[in-house]
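Hello forum,

I keep getting stuck at the same step: I have a sequence, I want structure tokens, and every attempt I make locally crashes halfway through. Rather than fight my setup again tonight, could one of you with a working pipeline run this one for me? It's a single chain of 743 residues.
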Amino acid sequence: MTTSNATTCEWTITGMDCGSCAGKVRGAVERLPGVSQVDVALMAERLRLSLDEDQTSRDHIEAAVKRLGYGIATKGNAPSRKGFVLPEGAFPADATGDAPLETEGLEGTPVHTGGPAARDMSWYQTGKGRLVIATALLLIAAWAVKLTASDGIANWAFILATLIGVAPIARRAINAARAGMPFTIEMLMTIAATGALAIDAAEEAALVVFLFAVGEVLEGVAANKARDGIRALAGLVPKTALLEVSGKTREVPAEILQIGQTVLVRPGDRVPADGEVIEGVSGVDESPVTGESVPNLKEPGQPVFAGSINTEAALRVKVTKAAEDNTIARIIRLVEEAETARAPTERFIDRFSRIYMPAVVGVALLVALVPPLAFAQPWDTWIYRALALLLIGCPCALVISVPASIASALSAGARRGLLMKGGAVIEAAARTTHVAFDKTGTLTLGRPRITDIVPINGSEAEVLALAAGIEAGSSHPLAEAILSRAESDGAAPLPASGARALPGKGAEAMVGGGLAWVGSPRFAEASGVFDDAARQTAATLEDEGKTVVAVFRSDQLVGLLALRDEPRPDAGDAVRQLKALGIGAVMLTGDNARTAAAISQALGMDHRAELMPEDKVAAIRQLTERGRVMMVGDGINDAPALASAHIGVAMGSGTDVALETADAALLRNRVTDVAGTIRLSRAAMANIRQNVAIALGLKGVFLVTTVLGMTGLWLAILADTGATVLVTLNALRLLAFNSEKET
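Reply #2:
Ran it on my machine without issues. Output:
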């Protein structure tokens, strides 16, 4: 339970290469008093928890993690750890010039790297790489002794190589056991190696220790490769910026830019911060941020994203967000935080793996004891086979099978402007059977324009002036269209007060001493100001696919305005792609039935019209009774419907709401990205199924062949580490997945 004195603490953890690593860290800290809500993110290399420091200090948390051999530091600092190092001078210092790691004896090389530059090191510079080199040299030396001396001396050389190589592994196993985790790969490896020595299989024991070290290096390389996609996002923002001060420019670190400052962005430069253009006109390539390949023309007053590329002319940009809050920083945080929202499949495998390892240990005990005791079989033969079974008992490949695929899919999506908040969202998107679309701003451009002004009581200018007065200050697309037309026609908005929106109906305000409204024909009808002529006129305009609004006072209809919002160019193609995926599409709109029918018919989809916000929620609930529903809207007006669907997807070019309110966001404002999101999700789930099959298949095959005596210790360890590497490499294929390509 979280206590009243608990605070949220966060650390960076290095050296975690598989799901078992994350499990060890979680197990080591969650047993400490005063610790709750433990969250270990493998791909983000993050430990977050709630801590009552009256019961356990932060130093105790860090010590518990260091004892397992992992690097740890508070967020933003360099990770450190107590590890196992060779005598000073045995290996060169880190190429980065970092201070040496702490030493606790001479048992071997570090098992887990723990420096801030570890990510940039070559494999042989890391602690795991040094362990491989050390065990390889010991093994070669032992083989050399075997070739030049007697078998007895050579056997002692292999025993020595095994003991030196397994010592750091054994220490990690003991520390994990003390933390309440006896069933770890390190413990199984230690038992297998020492057991092999006991049955006079020293040469094979030394080889197994070496192969285990090689496997850990390969796991580390593969895990770092999986994280590279997220790290690459951080590299999109330039390190420096040209800051303007008193008419002069000077180069400063981009991370220190403050809101309100002005920066110069030359042609070919990357924009150093989220901001607003205050001078200059240029095309800006936003593909690094949104995946949109066509440069967007930027003029004064328009926003630009950090990391986008200025392609044509110099721009002066006012900084609107600090470095830690820019679009790329928020995307990185969302992708990293998404790891916490684990898929149901991942949670199931996590529970299964906790049973799997003890079960294999139990089977190994039976294999070691039953044949010799019940059937008088040779002890050394069946103990050897039991030891090989122990090495198959590690569920690393199974545990990493889901998070590796999820991380790769999230990274691939982020590079194409498809943001999904975790494995649960990916799994739900893959199962989608129906997609519900909002109309305005989603299927349409969201920029309606007035096509017809029909005065009933007054002139066109009077209709516009009254409507503009009521809508003054509103940011609704229809209001903006009315205000824009009033400005272009020179119709000054009438003074108004007490303006307010009426959800699903329109807007009202006090104008000229009385209430006036801009609303739907249905609202005007209910208010008693519509006659047969007005109904006929509105119906004719709606049949043409236009949206009609009535401008009226309490006693009379002043006039009608007809607006049209054109469908997005890719909306029809998006519906076609969804149908090809076997997914139904429906448009949910508050607009009138005739306009909705005209637009939906042109796009080739179903529609439901004249829906109030609560009606949209009801429609979504009806759809969820028939299948899995994805709702796509603008992230603001459609919040209730987005929340009611299995997945809420927001359209929006990096807006705060689009990034932070829905389950997923489409940064490019392309409707076809809805189908792309589903394709990517289905590919991720197929990849997960492949990974689970690889992990369990290899384990199953080697379990049978080991019991039958067909494979031994060294093949068993290859089955374990090989499966982990294969699973990770298979997951990395998703990084190259093209969500735009129809399959």
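Residues 81-118 have pLDDT under 50 and may be disordered. If your local run keeps crashing, start a new thread with the error log.
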